[in-house]
């Protein structure tokens, strides 16, 4: 069980996490999603007692991580797979970790076998590929057989086999009743791995939902492309439709003037008729079944706090141009 | 629980220290200083043989005997630095902090491990320099070697503890600065540059400040004067011993306070 309550973390003038609250329950894989810089890693660092919260609480199993007696037996974490001393052998890296938490030495051998590194246990980590380091980091997280697991971007640098291995491992760990939190900036990966999703942007909670709910929420709609998006939005909203700028960038033929709108609550016929009545040209009207990826893009780029001062981000800049 | 947690942390740090090559390089360098002292002892013995009886009375072996422990101080000081800065460079310090969240306990565990290794290495080199050079020169009667080995040993044993003080200062510097280069430069400054600068202060300040330099403390603890040394000898033995302990403990305490407060 992981609970974050009204968590705020500031670094100087920068607010990395802003009054964030969510809970992660046992028995599910929870995806922790957000663009780069959204505050995922910061939240995990505060959860692990590495950084001190400015205000609010971040609890594991009902208490602060720093107060745990033998933390690795309750919480396993992989933050940065590259953060290993290259001169140390894999066996030794896990060995000191186990020794520091009163974990029997045979667990070292067990987890090395579990992650497929038994053959290189006596090799120095400097010679490991990124994928092997990820496996070593996961082995370290599993060492204490903990009930709570946190992984920060665990599929980075893995080949397709490795990605599938992680996916199956995460699902198996959750099926054993563990609490599993995986951060990622890739919805396509979480779509296949996670049951629940916590989406954050600019340090704030955007969505706390299940994968199915999110798909349904964004799943049935109509994608409309028009050169006069502002007018059409007004018309459709007056008719009771929900209208949001749609992701996907400018029209494929390069006409930047066109705006793409994701319309909910109205069908293709109603939209076409209303646009015709007002004389608004439509360049595309497509009944749309959004992928989670698109739902995620809509969530994060449509977030006002996120777009407001994200001038350096090309995608949000494009959004701003389209909608202005 | 505290005791077991601390014992686990010490065991983990001991494993860490044993499992990187830099530890063995540094300890090899430390052992080499002793080897060098013994080789120089052979050279000194030969030189002694060629001297006239009058010159022999002015020829001293002690400076050579003391140089081993002095050099060992820098070697194990680097060992202290390397007990923590590579963890900051690689980012492994976060893994360490998640394994042992109580940072004061963690630093104490590192200090216990590094301090013990440095104490053994420092004593081996310092006492080894005394005993070894005596064996090398054999029955040549150096003017400053009249005292029995048993009489000289306590003084050298005290001096043999100073490398451990440098190791703990190195550890504290590493924890505070988080950079290997910065920490080693600071260590060399405290070990060698600062005493030389102090020596060149106008009197009586060179003697006053020179009395509180680490290198001058063992002689003061043993109650010897500072003749032929760049240090002062104004402190009584008890005060000198307390100051030597403070050099080991105060920087570590400061580092522990900073570690507890700082985001990792």
TrEMBL record, chain A:
Entry-linked InterPro entries: AAA+_ATPase, ABC_transporter-like_ATP-bd, ABC_transporter-like_CS, P-loop_NTPase
Residue intervals of the ABC transporter domain:
2-227
PROSITE patterns cross-referenced by the UniProt entry:
ABC_TRANSPORTER_1, ABC_TRANSPORTER_2
Example of a GO MF term: ATP hydrolysis activity
Q: Which UniProt keywords apply?
A: ATP-binding, Nucleotide-binding, Transport
Q: Give the family per the record.
A: Belongs to the ABC transporter superfamily.
Q: What name does UniProt use for this protein?
A: ATP-binding cassette domain-containing protein
UniProtKB/TrEMBL annotation, chain B:
Keywords carried by this UniProt record: Membrane, Transmembrane, Transmembrane helix
Residue intervals passing through the bilayer: 24-47, 67-84, 105-133, 153-177, 184-201, 239-259
- Looking at the keywords, is Cell inner membrane present? no
Domain of life according to the entry: Bacteria
Identify this protein by name. Answer: ABC transporter permease
Source species: Actinomadura syzygii
């Amino acid at each position: 069980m992981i609970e974050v309550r009204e968590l705020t973390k500031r670094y100087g003038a920068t607010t990395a996490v802003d009054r964030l609250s969510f809970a992660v329950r046992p028995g599910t894989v929870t995806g922790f999603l957000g663009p780069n810089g959204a505050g995922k890693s910061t939240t995990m660092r505060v959860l692990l007692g590495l950084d001190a919260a400015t205000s609010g609480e971040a609890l594991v199993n009902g208490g602060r991580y720093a107060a745990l007696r033998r933390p690795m037996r309750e919480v396993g974490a992989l933050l940065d797979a590259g953060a290993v001393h290259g001169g140390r052998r894999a066996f030794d890296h896990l060995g000191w970790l186990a020794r520091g938490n009163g974990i029997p030495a045979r667990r070292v051998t067990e987890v090395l076998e579990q992650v497929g590194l038994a053959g290189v246990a006596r090799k120095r980590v400097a010679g490991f590929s990124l994928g092997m380091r990820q496996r070593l980091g996961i082995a370290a997280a599993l060492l204490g057989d903990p009930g709570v697991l946190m992984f920060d971007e665990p599929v980075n640098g893995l080949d397709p086999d490795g990605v599938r291995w992680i996916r199956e491992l995460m699902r198996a760990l959750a099926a054993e009743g563990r609490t599993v939190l995986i951060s990622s900036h890739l919805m396509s990966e979480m779509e296949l791995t996670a049951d629940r999703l916590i989406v954050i942007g600019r340090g704030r909670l955007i969505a706390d939902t299940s994968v199915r709910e999110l798909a349904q929420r964004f799943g049935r709609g109509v994608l409309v492309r028009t050169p006069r998006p502002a007018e059409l939005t007004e018309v459709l909203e007056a008719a009771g439709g929900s209208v949001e700028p749609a992701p996907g960038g400018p029209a494929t033929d390069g006409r930047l003037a066109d705006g793409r709108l994701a319309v909910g609550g109205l069908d293709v016929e109603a939209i076409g008729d209303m646009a015709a009545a007002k004389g608004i040209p439509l360049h595309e009207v497509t009944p749309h079944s959004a992928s989670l990826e698109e739902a995620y893009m809509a969530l994060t780029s449509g977030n006002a706090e996120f777009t407001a001062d994200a001038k350096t981000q090309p995608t949000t800049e494009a959004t701003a141009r389209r909608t202005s | 629980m505290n005791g077991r947690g601390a014992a686990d942390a010490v065991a983990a740090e001991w494993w860490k220290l044993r499992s990187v090559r830099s530890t063995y390089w540094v300890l090899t360098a430390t052992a080499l200083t002793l080897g060098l002292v013994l080789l120089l002892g052979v050279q000194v013995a030969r030189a002694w043989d060629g001297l006239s009886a009058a010159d022999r009375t002015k020829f001293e072996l002690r400076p050579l005997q003391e140089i081993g422990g002095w050099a060992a101080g820098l070697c194990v000081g680097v060992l202290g630095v390397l007990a923590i800065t590579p963890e900051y460079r690689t980012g492994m310090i976060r893994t360490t902090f998640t394994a042992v969240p109580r940072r004061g306990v963690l630093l104490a565990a590192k200090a216990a491990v590094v301090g013990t290794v440095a104490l053994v290495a420092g004593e081996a080199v310092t006492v080894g320099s005394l005993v070894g050079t005596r064996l090398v020169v054999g029955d040549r009667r150096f003017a400053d070697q009249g005292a029995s080995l048993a009489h000289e040993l306590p003084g050298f044993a005290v001096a043999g503890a100073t490398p451990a003080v440098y190791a703990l200062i190195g550890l504290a510097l590493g924890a505070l600065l988080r950079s290997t280069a910065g920490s080693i430069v600071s260590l060399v400054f405290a070990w060698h540059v600062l005493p030389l600068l102090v020596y060149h202060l106008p009197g009586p300040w060179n003697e006053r400040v020179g009395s509180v330099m680490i290198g001058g403390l063992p002689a003061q603890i043993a109650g010897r004067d500072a003749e032929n040394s760049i240090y002062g000898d104004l402190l009584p033995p008890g005060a000198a011993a307390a100051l030597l302990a403070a050099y080991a403990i105060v920087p570590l305490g400061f580092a522990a306070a900073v570690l507890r407060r700082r985001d990792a």
